[in-house]
């Protein structure tokens, strides 16, 4: 009897496969990396073929090492990095490298779209301002700068949906991932003809869209040959990585909040109705739970800031040692602040020109101070999102945390203190791929609903309480909040200077 479920996560760093049983227990995982390309400052691209090769290899590995036969797989769920643009020709061939979620090249195109449609209308339809990371401005960029590629385009897909196409031959997406394209009517949970027509994007380019737990396609003969799965295995629509991670940590009802601390940082709050933040400072997307939406604050470089810091300044120091050292210096790092805007920023400052910075350095500061400042700077950035949510009337007293950054006891305590909330962790440690597997279980009939799947599979294992440093951090956060407004004009000048230097170098 088919009783196992498979989740695939196409992240920026690699493609993970997670195999679980009908009780939500993880049986086997496998991850294969794929390279990231930055051909110019603030550009970020990947080859979609690398996603497929890595995904297929991860699937083969979990099947070969688990002892589970392909006919025991009841369903497959997909998730992955959002917003990335994959352009295909009429034969289904990739026309150029995918432009990713953290690519910042499209500021001018965002302004053009906003002017064409109107800022209020964009926010009403899509729930969000048009941001450089989103998909629509990438399409406009290609039209203006790579007209031959645009002329050949017949379809566009998001990253996980390209893997679905290679696995099944179907052009399908889901409501949560499509919400991040600036082409989707988030309240109506369908593509927006108004946005498509205003931007001159043909309706036939967009994939079919369904709710996340729905069976969207079945594994094709070619997909079966390359992965080892059984031809005809159901594949559900799945979800964008944040919505899938929310499912995988049980954030499937209003009143529960997810803090995800991966490369990017996310605060995710489910809603039972479509309620965009009036100024668009929080994202308003469809949830992977049918009939639900969510508000989401996103910082682009969360654990990614720590990764950069480690690679650039402490490459020979193990991560655990580096973070443990931060616990030896007092809260506030003796007046040292870190702005985590290494890839620009989204919440609360949708600014592709924002840049990272250490501020307040003195001769007294040593490596542990710098490390603690990085950890605290990320926490302060997440507090910005929390404050926007509470200002809308959301009651947030307890947060569930997930992602690699939350494994550190030092960082968990900093987060609990800065956010001034209880911070719980769960026994679900496989992130978005685990949520995708649970969604597959709903589509395959293993679970009655997404809520049922989360109730069965997800349990809290630890909870950190805010400590006596919470008051100190409230004062420090107010100082942190003053830094971006003061530096924003200089960030713009610095970004233009970097562009001119890059152009001169290439010439």
Protein architecture, described:
This protein has 507 residues and is an alpha+beta fold. The chain is globular. The N and C termini lie far apart (63 Å). The model has no long low-confidence stretch (mean pLDDT 95).
Top keywords for this entry?
7-stranded mixed β-sheet, alpha+beta, 17 helices, 507 residues
Q: What is the topology, as strand order, of the major beta sheet?
A: 18-19-17-16-22-23-24
Low-pLDDT runs of 5+ residues are none
The percent range for strand residues is 15-25%
The secondary-structure class comes to alpha+beta
- The overall pLDDT, averaged over residues, is 95
Percent helix range: 40-55%
Cα end-to-end separation: 63 Å
Discrete helix count: 17
Q: Please give the largest β-sheet.
A: 7 strands, mixed
Radius of gyration, Cα only, in angstroms? 22 Å
**Shape annotation:** globular
Counted beta strands: 24
């Amino acid at each position: 009897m088919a009783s196992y479920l498979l989740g695939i996560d196409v992240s920026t760093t690699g493609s993970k496969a997670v195999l679980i049983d009908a009780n939500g227990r993880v049986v086997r995982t496998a991850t294969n990396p794929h390279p990231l390309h930055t051909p110019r400052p603030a550009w970020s691209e990947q080859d979609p073929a690398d996603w497929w090769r890595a995904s297929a290899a991860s699937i083969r590995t979990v099947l070969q090492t688990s002892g589970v036969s392909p006919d025991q797989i009841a369903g497959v769920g997909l998730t992955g990095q959002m917003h990335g643009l994959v352009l295909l020709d009429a034969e289904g061939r990739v026309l150029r490298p995918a432009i990713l979620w953290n690519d910042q090249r499209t500021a001018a195109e965002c302004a053009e779209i906003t002017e064409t449609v109107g800022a209020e209308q964009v926010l009403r339809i899509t729930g969000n301002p048009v941001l450089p990371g989103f998909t629509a401005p990438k399409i406009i960029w290609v039209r203006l700068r790579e007209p031959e590629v645009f002329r050949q385009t017949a379809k566009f897909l998001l990253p996980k949906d390209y893997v679905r196409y290679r696995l099944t031959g179907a052009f399908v997406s889901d409501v949560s991932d499509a919400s991040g394209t600036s082409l989707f009517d988030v309240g109506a949970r369908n593509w927006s003809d108004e946005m498509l027509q205003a931007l001159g994007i043909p309706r036939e380019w967009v994939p079919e869209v369904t709710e996340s737990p729905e069976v969207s396609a079945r594994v094709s003969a070619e997909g079966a040959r390359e992965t080892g799965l059984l031809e005809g295995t159901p594949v559900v629509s799945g979800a964008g990585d944040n919505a899938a991670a929310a499912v995988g940590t049980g954030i499937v009802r209003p009143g529960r909040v997810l803090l995800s601390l991966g490369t990017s940082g996310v605060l995710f709050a489910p809603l039972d109705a479509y309620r965009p933040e009036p100024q668009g400072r929080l994202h308003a997307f469809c949830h992977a739970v049918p009939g639900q939406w969510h508000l989401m604050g996103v910082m682009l470089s969360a654990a990614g800031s720590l990764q950069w810091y480690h690679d650039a300044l402490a490459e020979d120091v193990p991560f655990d040692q580096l973070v443990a050292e931060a616990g030896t210096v007092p809260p506030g790092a003796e007046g040292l602040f870190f702005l985590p805007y290494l890839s620009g920023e989204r919440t609360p400052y949708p600014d592709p020109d924002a840049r990272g910075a250490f501020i307040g350095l003195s001769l007294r500061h040593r490596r542990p101070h710098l490390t603690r400042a990085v950890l605290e700077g990320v926490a302060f950035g997440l507090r910005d999102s929390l404050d926007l949510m509470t200002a809308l009337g959301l009651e947030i007293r307890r947060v569930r945390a997930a992602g690699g950054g939350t494994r550190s006891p030092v960082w968990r305590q900093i987060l609990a203190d800065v956010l001034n909330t209880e911070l719980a962790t769960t026994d679900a440690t496989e992130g978005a791929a685990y949520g995708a597997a649970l969604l597959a279980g709903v589509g395959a009939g293993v679970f009655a609903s997404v809520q049922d799947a989360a109730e069965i599979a997800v349990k809290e294992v630890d909870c950190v309480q805010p400590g006596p440093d919470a008051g100190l951090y409230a004062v420090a956060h107010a100082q942190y909040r003053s830094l971006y407004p003061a530096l924003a004009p200089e960030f713009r000048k610095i970004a233009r200077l970097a562009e001119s230097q890059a152009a001169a170098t290439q010439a």
